[in-house]
Amino acid sequence: MNKSTKAQIYSAANAAYPKTVRIRRRLHANPELSGQERQTARLVHRFLTTLGLDPKYCVRRTGVAASLANGKGPVVVLRADLDALPVEEKNRVPFRSRKKGVAHACGHDMHTAALLGAAHMLVRLKHLWSGTVVFLFQPSEEREPGGALDMIAEQAFPSRADCVLGLHVSSEYTTGRVGLKSGDECSGEIVFDVLVKGKGGHGSAPHATVDPIVCAASMIMDLQTLISRECPAVEPAVLTVGSFHAGTANNVIPDEADFRGTIRTFSPKIQRLLRRRVGQSLRTAARSFRAGVEITFRDSYPPGYNDPGLARWARAVLGALLGKRNVAVRTQPTMFSEDFAYYQQKAAGLYLHLGVRPKGVRTMPGIHSANFLPDERALRTAMIVHAGLAIEKMSRDYE
Fold it and tell me: Which of 3.30.1780.10, 3.40.50.10170, 3.40.50.300, 3.30.70.360 would CATH assign to domain 188-296?
């Protein structure tokens, strides 16, 4: 990337930055849960329309897709997610969430605002590139199986794409930096629901009951050994039980207990192994307690894979744009799961980690925390990353 192109990208980012901050704050104050992002989608649709694009609503008007064509050339897809989380925000800022129990605790407001800012930049800088940019503003990333599948089903994702690019805020890196990994990036995920069926009764006479709480507790403890004793140590895998519900009173043994969890791996083979062994372990435990059990598995997100060639290219481009010291080469994948992986099955993809920790701050609350509050200055970096990679991929000098 030559100095003139870099200077124009930074100038366009600086011009778009104030409005992008205002958009982000509006989004942050008005979060919407997965499948309910209609107000957010309307804001996105209106903004893209003002840029001269012809956006289309998707997924029951909870998502938006738009194309910006500028002659012949590569097709680049840029993606942001729109949904918030069922979290009560604890930050005391003027633009804190106005919706009780709902907050942008995962930073999707940053993603959406940054991509809108990048769209503004790419319209302004059309003289630097030739090709087509497809903007995907996707709902329901936080709810399995993810809004990406719906966007693909509705053909919002183009039939031919040279690459798809996305990013996610990260408190691991300071503002101005990005993290990039080649190959395995995000784990695949299986979700499981377990219903333990016992026989209820009075808490004073447990011998006359089949206690589903004790059975379920034993099941959960047994599951903890599957990773350490069934999986090869060199194969990353995580099994988590995140929900347990049973009973209504302290002296009543209930008839049923239920718990839910996830299995995360990068290997389809290990995924199949764990799915089989979880089922076997739960059924064996149920028999030992004279209880019944119903187990439901659901495939959630596939593993995310960053195309190695695209990653090498992006590392060089971002090094020129941001400075080599601001591009962290990640050596380990993350056990987070992302439905961006579905797009990576359609085209060469790259998923980046955007630093949002203020400089000088050693630690900060992470994503999904009620206190998560990313540094807004990272919006400028995100816009530069989106627009810079797209421009370089579609450069009029691109070969």
Answer: 3.30.70.360
Q: What is the DSSP letter of 36?
A: -
Q: Which residues lie closer than 8 Å to 22 by C-beta, 6 or more apart?
A: none
Q: How far apart are CA 381 and CA 11, in angstroms?
A: 12
pTM: 0.91
Q: What is the pLDDT of residue 398?
A: 43
Say whether domain 3-186+303-393 belongs to CATH 3.40.630.10. yes
pLDDT on residue 144: 86
Instruction: Give 45-100 pLDDT, tens digit per residue.
Output: 999 999 999 999 999 999 999 999 999 999 999 999 999 999 999 999 999 999 99
Please tell me which residue in 17, 57, 173, 301 is annotated as part of the active site.
Answer: 301
The pLDDT of 304-312, averaged and rounded, is: 97
What tokens were used for 333? Answer: 């994948």
Our answer to whether residue 301 is catalytic in this structure is: yes
Backbone angles phi, psi at 76, to 5 degrees: -115, 130
For residue 125, what are the CA distances in angstroms to 73, 98, 252, 382, 395? 15, 36, 68, 17, 11
Which residues make beta-bridge pairs with 216?
Answer: none
Q: Distance between CA atoms of 360 and 372, rounded to whole angstroms?
A: 17
Per-residue pLDDT of 199-239, as tens digits, reads 999 999 999 999 999 999 999 999 999 999 999 999 999 99
Question: Residue 295: which region, alpha, beta or left (left: phi > 0; alpha: psi -120 to 50)?
Answer: beta
Listed by start position, the domains of the chain span 3-186+303-393, 188-296
The reply to whether 188-296 shares the fold of 3-186+303-393 is no
Partnered with residue 199 across adjacent β-strands are 210
What is the average pLDDT value for the chain, to the nearest integer? 96
Spot the catalytic one: 32, 256, 376, 392. Answer: 376
- Triad 23, 26, 32: Cα angle to 5°: 115
Question: For the chain, how big is the Rg over CA atoms in Å?
Answer: 23
**Active-site residue, 189 included:** no
